[in-house]
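Sensory histidine kinase/phosphatase NtrB, Candidatus Avisuccinivibrio stercorigallinarum. Tokens?
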Amino acid sequence: MQAESKAILESLATAVLLTDHNLKIVYANSAAEQLFNMSRSKLCLLKLTDLLDKGQKGLFENIQHSLKPRAQGFTASDIWIIPEPHQAIKTDISISHYSGKGRGLIAEFKAIDYQQKMDQELARRTQHLAARDLIRSLAHEIKNPLGGIRGAAQLLEMSYGKYPHLTDYTQVIIEQSDRLKNLVDKLLGPQRPNPLTLCNIHYVIEKVLSLENMELSQGSHIRFVKDYDPSLPELMLDIDAMQQAVLNVVSNAIHALTEAKTPHPQIVIQTRAQLGSRVINGIKYPSALIVSITDNGPGIPENIRETLFYPMVTSRPDGTGLGLSIAQSIVERHSGIIECDSEKGRTVFKIVLPLRKDNLA
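Tokens:
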């Protein structure tokens, strides 16, 4: 394949597969790797029909017909592809015939839910930023009078310290003022972010797991499974902040497993590089690093899934609802995003960080 033609195919957001006359895949672009969630070397071991739902007989007949000389191509909608067992993706497909030194098919796939997902992500981000700005504005307004209330309580205690029953009341005021100040500080987030430092993401994850293992009681049966990609490059990170972001997500998974008393509780932490273009917060990046944190707990209640990253949203009676909001803010400061997919028995949080020249070693 000529270098120029290959570069054009690699830049497409549409998944493209080329086959030979036996329908064996001979080329897959980066978007195809992303859609089918497998490397092009693995895709090139398969036939085009291996990726399609076998129940679509009419589609298979049309594909075979397209291999004939001077045959016309075709397009089809609502086609199911099965890249892996128990995984199905609905796509639009376009098949074209090519001939030259060889002959075969050009198959283009576009996931139907791609644009819908992008629109939902944009709407969620807009709503999240609006809610976060509102909460921060309220937090600023609350913080100033809190200092005055605490100071007045201290003056009362100094003036009437000889009356123990009164100091009990002033101590309550001081303690509750401090508690509210801590909550407000969490809402406002770090005022002076740390400088970015080159760091391997696995160092951050290992620090988090070390902390969680120390905090878990000896009677806990939660098992951590690590599935790391050792070839991942170092990134420019605010190490302490990113550690906090990962810690908040892992802690949520631990609480969910513990409160639900899940049998054989397990948290899988996987790191991967996603090759091919990736749109994050409306910006297209050439590739990305993904940290997936998966638990086998009860899943996130449906009524809070859409607002999960908003401040003060939680399903726990004793929770503040700030953990995921803070984690999202930290990841966004690294130009990334956190995604969530949850169903009963499986919840996955993905921290997606772009890989670009200015943040790599």
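The first strand starts at residue 15 and ends at 19.
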